[in-house]
Specification:
141 residues; alpha+beta; 36% helix; disordered N terminus
Protein backbone atom coordinates (compact mmCIF):
# COMPACT_ATOMS: atom_id res chain seq x y z
CA UNK A 1 0.00 0.00 0.00
CA UNK A 2 2.81 2.42 0.89
CA UNK A 3 4.51 1.81 -2.49
CA UNK A 4 1.29 2.58 -4.36
CA UNK A 5 0.89 5.86 -2.47
CA UNK A 6 4.50 6.85 -3.13
CA UNK A 7 4.03 6.07 -6.82
CA UNK A 8 0.94 8.31 -7.00
CA UNK A 9 2.72 11.16 -5.21
CA UNK A 10 5.70 10.80 -7.58
CA UNK A 11 3.37 10.67 -10.58
CA UNK A 12 1.46 13.77 -9.53
CA UNK A 13 4.56 15.84 -8.86
CA UNK A 14 6.81 14.78 -11.71
CA UNK A 15 5.11 12.78 -14.47
CA UNK A 16 1.62 14.24 -14.82
CA UNK A 17 2.85 17.69 -15.96
CA UNK A 18 4.76 15.98 -18.77
CA UNK A 19 1.49 14.78 -20.30
CA UNK A 20 -0.05 18.24 -20.41
CA UNK A 21 1.52 21.50 -19.23
CA UNK A 22 -1.87 23.08 -18.62
CA UNK A 23 -3.13 20.21 -16.44
CA UNK A 24 -1.65 19.02 -13.14
CA UNK A 25 -2.49 16.82 -10.20
CA UNK A 26 -1.24 18.43 -6.99
CA UNK A 27 -0.97 16.57 -3.72
CA UNK A 28 -1.65 18.40 -0.47
CA UNK A 29 -2.24 17.64 3.20
CA UNK A 30 -5.73 16.72 4.32
CA UNK A 31 -7.83 19.52 5.79
CA UNK A 32 -6.60 19.79 9.37
CA UNK A 33 -3.94 17.14 8.71
CA UNK A 34 -0.17 17.35 9.14
CA UNK A 35 1.73 19.18 6.40
CA UNK A 36 4.21 16.32 6.04
CA UNK A 37 1.48 13.84 4.98
CA UNK A 38 0.11 14.81 1.54
CA UNK A 39 -2.87 12.47 1.13
CA UNK A 40 -5.23 14.87 -0.64
CA UNK A 41 -5.14 15.59 -4.38
CA UNK A 42 -6.36 18.56 -6.44
CA UNK A 43 -6.64 19.17 -10.17
CA UNK A 44 -4.99 22.40 -11.34
CA UNK A 45 -5.78 23.65 -14.84
CA UNK A 46 -3.72 26.32 -16.57
CA UNK A 47 -1.83 27.02 -13.31
CA UNK A 48 -4.81 29.02 -12.06
CA UNK A 49 -8.05 27.04 -11.80
CA UNK A 50 -8.25 24.38 -9.08
CA UNK A 51 -10.88 21.73 -8.34
CA UNK A 52 -10.98 19.23 -5.52
CA UNK A 53 -13.46 17.01 -3.69
CA UNK A 54 -13.64 17.20 0.10
CA UNK A 55 -16.05 16.21 2.86
CA UNK A 56 -18.37 18.85 4.24
CA UNK A 57 -17.34 19.61 7.82
CA UNK A 58 -14.02 17.85 7.20
CA UNK A 59 -12.68 18.41 10.72
CA UNK A 60 -15.87 17.43 12.54
CA UNK A 61 -15.41 14.40 14.84
CA UNK A 62 -18.57 12.78 13.46
CA UNK A 63 -17.30 13.18 9.88
CA UNK A 64 -13.93 11.69 10.81
CA UNK A 65 -15.60 8.79 12.61
CA UNK A 66 -17.80 8.05 9.60
CA UNK A 67 -14.87 8.15 7.19
CA UNK A 68 -12.62 5.97 9.35
CA UNK A 69 -15.40 3.39 9.65
CA UNK A 70 -15.74 3.49 5.83
CA UNK A 71 -19.16 5.13 5.78
CA UNK A 72 -20.09 7.85 3.30
CA UNK A 73 -20.35 11.51 4.26
CA UNK A 74 -21.67 14.48 2.29
CA UNK A 75 -18.97 15.93 0.08
CA UNK A 76 -18.49 19.04 -1.98
CA UNK A 77 -16.54 19.91 -5.07
CA UNK A 78 -14.55 23.06 -4.47
CA UNK A 79 -13.38 25.44 -7.17
CA UNK A 80 -11.03 28.32 -6.67
CA UNK A 81 -8.55 30.41 -8.60
CA UNK A 82 -5.00 31.27 -7.67
CA UNK A 83 -4.84 34.67 -9.34
CA UNK A 84 -8.10 36.24 -10.36
CA UNK A 85 -8.14 39.13 -12.82
CA UNK A 86 -11.27 41.05 -13.76
CA UNK A 87 -10.50 40.63 -17.47
CA UNK A 88 -10.31 36.82 -17.11
CA UNK A 89 -14.04 36.39 -16.45
CA UNK A 90 -14.95 36.97 -20.08
CA UNK A 91 -12.38 34.46 -21.38
CA UNK A 92 -13.09 30.81 -20.64
CA UNK A 93 -10.81 28.32 -22.33
CA UNK A 94 -12.20 25.07 -23.75
CA UNK A 95 -10.36 23.13 -21.04
CA UNK A 96 -12.00 25.15 -18.26
CA UNK A 97 -15.39 24.75 -19.94
CA UNK A 98 -14.88 20.96 -20.13
CA UNK A 99 -13.90 20.86 -16.45
CA UNK A 100 -17.03 22.79 -15.49
CA UNK A 101 -19.17 20.41 -17.56
CA UNK A 102 -17.58 17.43 -15.83
CA UNK A 103 -18.23 18.92 -12.39
CA UNK A 104 -21.87 19.64 -13.29
CA UNK A 105 -22.30 16.02 -14.44
CA UNK A 106 -20.59 14.55 -11.35
CA UNK A 107 -23.68 13.54 -9.41
CA UNK A 108 -22.26 11.34 -6.64
CA UNK A 109 -21.48 13.93 -3.98
CA UNK A 110 -21.20 11.40 -1.13
CA UNK A 111 -17.53 11.02 -0.23
CA UNK A 112 -16.36 7.54 0.70
CA UNK A 113 -12.74 6.56 1.31
CA UNK A 114 -13.10 3.40 -0.80
CA UNK A 115 -15.28 4.22 -3.79
CA UNK A 116 -15.62 7.99 -4.19
CA UNK A 117 -12.88 10.20 -2.76
CA UNK A 118 -10.60 13.06 -3.75
CA UNK A 119 -8.36 10.69 -5.73
CA UNK A 120 -11.16 9.08 -7.75
CA UNK A 121 -12.64 12.50 -8.49
CA UNK A 122 -9.28 14.02 -9.47
CA UNK A 123 -8.23 11.10 -11.67
CA UNK A 124 -11.59 11.05 -13.46
CA UNK A 125 -11.47 14.81 -14.06
CA UNK A 126 -7.84 14.58 -15.19
CA UNK A 127 -8.70 11.77 -17.63
CA UNK A 128 -11.72 13.68 -18.89
CA UNK A 129 -9.59 16.74 -19.63
CA UNK A 130 -6.77 14.77 -21.27
CA UNK A 131 -9.10 13.19 -23.80
CA UNK A 132 -8.87 15.06 -27.05
CA UNK A 133 -12.19 13.99 -28.56
CA UNK A 134 -14.26 15.30 -25.65
CA UNK A 135 -16.20 12.07 -25.22
CA UNK A 136 -15.71 9.84 -22.23
CA UNK A 137 -16.87 6.27 -22.16
CA UNK A 138 -17.17 5.80 -18.42
CA UNK A 139 -19.87 6.35 -15.86
CA UNK A 140 -19.12 9.24 -13.48
CA UNK A 141 -21.10 7.68 -10.65
Amino acid sequence: MRCWFLFLVFYCDFCAPLLCDALQLKVAPLIGGPAWLPLHVKVVVENDHTWDFVPLNATSPSTLKSLVTLHSVPGEIRYYRQKKKASDDAIISPTIRRAQEFVNAYTDRDLNLIRNNCWTFALMLYWHLLRSDGEDNFDMQ
